Every structure is written in structure tokens, then in C-alpha cells.
Amino acid sequence: MPVADHPTDNRAAVRPDLPRRGRITTPFGPRATGAEILAATDLTGRRMIVTGGGSCIGAETARALAMAGADVTVAVRDPGAAHPLRAQAAQESWPGSVRAARLDLADLGSVADFAAAWEGPLHGLVANAGIMALPVLQLSSSGWELQLATNHLGHFALATRLRDALARADGARVVVVSSGAHRGHPFDPDDPQFDRTPYDPWVAYGRSKSADVLMAVGIARRWADDGITANALMPGWITTRLQRHVDLATLQTMGAADENGARIEQPFYKTPEQGAATSVLLAGSPLMGGVSGRYFEDNQEALVGEGVAAHALDIDLADRLWGLAEPIVAAS
């Protein structure tokens, strides 16, 4: 069982009327890999989806789950991106399997098609895919700011359309990959598309990642009777294609590039295998059975005000976001 210590209740920090609960900790440190977390775990018969699983931490998440016996569907815009992972799974005869299917999270029609094609129970959905810091305001076909549309709305649509499949599994888990960027930028339900305020790439990104945590909070409350749990996480600092829209000056300011543009790996950066670990923990580890509505980083539950902002766990804000997203999905 996970260790509960420090009488800090994330939800009670936002809603004092809720009962207090202990913080969840695990034996795994920040440098653990997904393979290490699942070393003694058998996921045979578990069916899981990893969005954005064709590269970097998504691929490492899929790899760790499949090597533990899960049958993993990698959901990506280009299914060919998952070919190396699928080939390795076949060549090395992993206990589980890897398949690929097309999914464009910014296109709600694509999400509907993907969900309609799914058959049978779904034991785990890892909402991993995302985009970051688009330099100019772009809107999706549904009229949502593109980072919010991709990082949140597409995953919300996917989860809600797959709710019945999740309910058919025994103790299904939804895992939402957020970011520490959420801390400085609460989701703004009154101006989600930047109609009233100037667009800023990092504000938009941070708001979308706050929305990701709020999505986990909403699912945890609304779908508990279906046996579905949901948690969000910060994977850590990892060099990935997610940073492809970040300009050189910003990378240099972050200490992630030198004066010639070459990338710098800071000591606190993780490898992709390490960056996938918290996703793998929440999706597959028996330690996380029944744990729901929380936010993790470095394989531990984060403290409110330190790792996770109170606004990202606000139940009322989660309800407002749900109310905005639900009719958009229903109309698609």
C-alpha cells in the first residue's frame, strides 16, 4: 500500500468542509524509471491507451506498460511514428503488445471516430499528448484556443466518449499529464479563448495544464461510482519535441540552450524513461489502487502550494470547466 504521511489534504486546502486525508508517498525516488516501478507487476490482460505514445515520454510510458504485460494502444496523429516501438515489442517478445491508431486531439471528429472504434473494456487511459507555447493565437475547428483544445478538450472528449469502456473494466484509471507551468496560470472560465486579454504563449500553456488537473478532479468526483479513478501529474523536466515551438532566446533564458543554440541538459533534467515513471506509477502500479483526484510529481503526491496550486484542485472551478467542455463534445 502507498504510505500516507503528513496530514495535508489537497482538497481540504481548497474546500475546508471536506475531510482531511494523508499525503500519498511511495518508495520510488525522482530518478526511478517506469520499468523499475513495474518490475514486480503483472499487467497481463489490461488494455491501455497512451496518447502521444509515438515518442519520448509517451513512448516510454507505453514501453513500460507493455513490458509489464499490458496491451497498449498508442494513439497518435501519425500511426507510423509508433513503428519503432511496435517493431521492438515484436522482436523482443514483450509480455504485452503495442498497436497504433490514428487520433488528432485537436479534431473532435477524429476523437469521436477513435472512441467509436474501441471495443471492450479499457483499463487505463494516459492523456499524455500535448503542445506547448504556440507563438501566435490559433483556434481549433471547435473554436477553442489550440493549446487548450489539444491539451484539455481533446482529452476530455476522449475520456467522456470512452467512459462506458472504462466503467466495464475493474478499477479503470485515467492519468492526465500536466505540468508545473499550471501553478502560475489558473484556468480562466470567463476568457478561455483570449477574447478579452492579449494572447500569451506561456499563459495559454499554463492555463491548459491547469485545465488538465481540473479534468482529473472532475472525473474523480463524477465517475467514482463506476470504479474509475483519475489523477494528474508533472513528469519533470525532459528534453522533448514539446519544446519545438520555444524560441532560442527563451531556451537560453531557461538555461536549456547555449549561445550557439546547442541544447544543455541541466542536472535536474530527467531522461525520457525517468520522465515517464510517474505516468506509469499512476497507470499501472498496485500502489495506486483506489487513489483518485490527486496530483503527483517525482512519484509522490505533491503538496498544495509547492508542487500543485490550490486553483488546480478547486472543485467549483472544475465544475465550471466541465460545464464549458461538455456541450462542445456533445455537439461534435
What does this structure look like?
The protein is α/β, with parallel strands linked by helices and 332 residues long. It has a single domain (3-25, 32-235, 270-331), classed as Rossmann fold (3-Layer(aba) Sandwich). The protein is 35% helix and 13% strand. It contains 11 helices and 10 strands. It has helices at residues 34-37, 56-67, 83-92, 108-117, 146-161, 163-168, 201-222, 248-253, 272-275, 277-284, 315-331, and strands at 3-5, 23-25, 47-51, 71-76, 97-102, 124-127, 173-177, 229-234, 295-297, 300-301. The strands form 2 sheets. An 8-stranded mixed sheet has the order 5-4-3-6-7-8-9-10, sandwiched between helices. Strands 1-2 form a two-stranded antiparallel ribbon. Strand 7 (173-177), helix 7 (201-222) and strand 8 form a beta-alpha-beta unit. Helix 5 packs parallel to helix 7. The N and C termini lie far apart (41 Å). Mean pLDDT is 88; it is low at 1-20 and 241-245.
Q: Which key terms come to mind for this protein?
A:
single chain; 332 residues; alpha/beta; 8-stranded mixed β-sheet; two-stranded antiparallel ribbon; 11 helices; disordered N terminus
